[in-house]
Amino acid sequence: SNTRAGYVICASDAPTATPTAAPSTQAPTPPAPVSTYFCSNDYPVDGFFAYKCGLLVTNGWRLWSGSTPSAFTGPSIGPNLRTTIDRYFYLSSSVGKSYVTTPPLSLSGGGTVEWAYHMYGDTIGRLEAQACTAFDDNCTRVWSRSQEQHSSSTSPWTYAQVSVPDTTVSIRFCGNRSGSRGDVGLANIRVI
Predict the structure, then answer these.
(1) Spatial contact of 88 and 79, defined as CB atoms under 8 Å apart
(2) Which of 54, 55, 75 shows the shortest CA–CA distance to 65?
(3) Which of the chain's termini has less CB crowding within 10 Å, N or C?
(4) Is pTM beyond 0.85 here?
């Protein structure tokens, strides 16, 4: 079990000023299941976040644009190749294992998961996609890459795709670094 971040909504969806209740000590309730999902990360937000694009994010992953702050690691631009509002998630080389989880899914007949990734740095650990049969729990690895996969920060992002069974209720991406030059990029997550 891992610590879960709280849910927040995108600024454009935020209600106007209304009183807020005292914080709850209970885990947040996930949104209703969806049959398709896409997060392009192309909207302006701050660099640090808890829950963006409907994704549950644990410590370590950051929403970013441009080059990651660490030298000799990470992408120099997002996968959509725009210099403005081309956001992506990156796992900082300064943290260990961390997760990004889709909202709850309802995949009658199974589904396909697509995403873009960038793994440049000589101490890259592992990035894996996991199909979960409970929201953010009971997960099985369906895809994995280890070590450096790109030759430079300017290398084009790579797109991956896997099929998942209809018992999948969420997709979880697990990043694990192994050294100081191990920034991993993740973007354009789509479930169809």
Answers:
(1) yes
(2) 75
(3) N
(4) no
Q: Strand 98-101 and strand 158-164: pairing?
A: unpaired
Q: Cβ distance 90 to 177 under 8 Å? A: no
Q: Is the pLDDT higher at 137 or at 115?
A: 115
Distance CA 165, CA 61 (A): 27
133-144 confidence digits (pLDDT tens): 988 789 999 999
Give, as one character, the DSSP assignment of residue 12.
G
> DSSP readout, 85-134?
S--EEEE-TT---EEEEPPPB--TT-EEEEEEEEE-STT--EEEEEEEEE
Structure tokens that stand for 51 in this block? 């829950």
Exposed, middle or buried: residue 173 (CB in 10 Å: 0-12, 13-18, 19+)? buried
Is pLDDT at 95 greater than 70 in this prediction? no
What is the distance between the alpha carbons of residues 149 and 135, in angstroms, rounded to a whole number? 29
Residue 169 and residue 133 in contact, taking contact as beta carbons nearer than 8 Å: yes
Which pLDDT does position 37 carry in this prediction?
61
DSSP 3-state helix, strand, coil percentages of the chain (rounded to 5)?
A: 0, 35, 60
pLDDT tens-digit readout, 32-72: 666 666 665 544 344 333 345 667 777 678 778 888 888 88
Structure-token pair, residue 98: 């961390």
